[in-house]
Amino acid sequence: MIPQKNWVRDLVVYQIYPRSFYDSNSDGVGDLPGVIQKLDYLQQLGVNALWLSPFFASPNDDNGYDISDYRAILPEFGTMEDCEELIRQCHARGMKFIMDLVVNHSSDEHEWFRKSVRREEPYTDYYYWRDGVDGHAPNNWGSVFGGSAWEYNEERGQYYLHFFSKKQPDLNWSNPLVRNEVHDLVRFWKEKGVDGLRVDAISYLDKPADFPDAEGEASPDGYVIPFLLIGREGTHAYIHEMNDKLFTPLNLMTVGEVSLATDEELYHYVSDEHAEFDMAIPFLPPIAEFGVHVPSMLRERISSRYEIVPDGWWAQFMSNHDKPRQVSAFGDDGENREVSAKALALVNHAAPGTPFVYQGEELGMTNVRYDSIDQYDDISTRNDYNQRLLAGDSPEAAFRFAAALSRDNARSPMQWNAEANAGFTTGAPWLTVNSNYTEINAEAQQDDPRSVLNFYRRLIALRRNHPALRDGKLVMIDSGHNDVIAFARETEGETLILAANLSGNACPVPEGLKGEILMQSYESGFDGVTLRPWEAVLLRK
Ligand code: GLC
Fold first, then answer.
1. pLDDT digits over 501-522, tens only?
2. Which residue's alpha carbon is nearest to atom 6 within ligand 1?
3. What sign does the dihedral 40-45-49-51 (CA atoms) show?
């Protein structure tokens, strides 16, 4: 599609997980002044938009994705003045500022919820409250983070619904007062200078009035995750309403984090026709990507999404705070770490859409290797571990499973230098730093022209100078080999071709591949005949 706001096309978005980015006051937790201190670094990288994961008041059951006050800053992260200063400084550098809008649910410590428990008007129906059935939860729904999706509240004498943890009660979007609250807080942040919204877990807003049992396989703990909630008509209507009242009139860039029941649904979220979001981040649980043949997966994803929405506009990403690190999951974090990190970056930035870079990706940061489940903080990792134990796995096997998928792989502190705690903090870090920081860190890569960091800098600059990477039509090329992905981006003015060997074996160069080399994952040596392991080239025809 052609985004409703054309400026969205020029963005290269950098995602910051504030808790792990840079700690300015030695409490072991990253913070907003820490982000301000690193803006030079980000400017040198060349990105022109920052998306910060939530920095609002929160008891941190799900690390800030459980918000107890949408208009207050989490004290560990700083003050409202710090936030305003950060937004000002971003703008002064020509960077857009994107915040996370987490409104499928709030925290159970939000005053709306507290008042709802007490049936104080008008809050009584701000959440989904139901009576139990024969002393049990209203239905068989399971929460994404384990256990029933219903929690009994003694004081109110009813159950409330929580698709995520029990400290994340779902807001009742069928209540117009709730929708108005959300609209008001978007206006509040627009006035603070926010340019865009990454809209969290947005596919589940609408719920069927009769709350039927969910069908499908039960988790080992006996509950069924209600995927029937995904993408209901009512949800699309609520998003469309926000677009009408807020996103378009306020010129806010929007990227929806969507779960998809079908591929076609993507069209609904991002087409001009339906007027909902500018682009979408389709949420896929890491398990869906685990053990797949990576080149086929990427080829299929890039081409099928482009076909579904003919003009093709996407959030183009491989990493975020919910996934293992891309170089570990899709690349080779052993001897080919650097070259595979570069090859994946080339594919991501040459494909149609707005590229997203997740903090540390530009250094080729890898998954962590902690020794025990106790070192993991992530609620989802702990649930995966417990579910595997319930399913009969040995503790070792359950640990291996949970560690491989863990969101903490991406949440370990940013590796700034080879000093203690990777230069992230002079205190005790909230999460153990990856032990490879002495080798993989920003300072070591800063002046090395061959580093992954400098590769990203060149790649982001290249995108600015080659409109074909932004506007070019996507033409998939039959590479003749299963491990090689190839496509062209064509405008009237130029044709660029990407060919990437996403494997550790040598593969033949696709037939007829010729042109001037613009970028390559190796320093040199492309011979036009054989692609070396993880060799990727971007050519101009
Ligand atoms: C989204 C976030 C994830 C969070 C969940 C619940 O998927 O990306 O981190 O746990 O929503 O808010």
1. 999 999 999 998 999 999 999 9
2. 65
3. negative
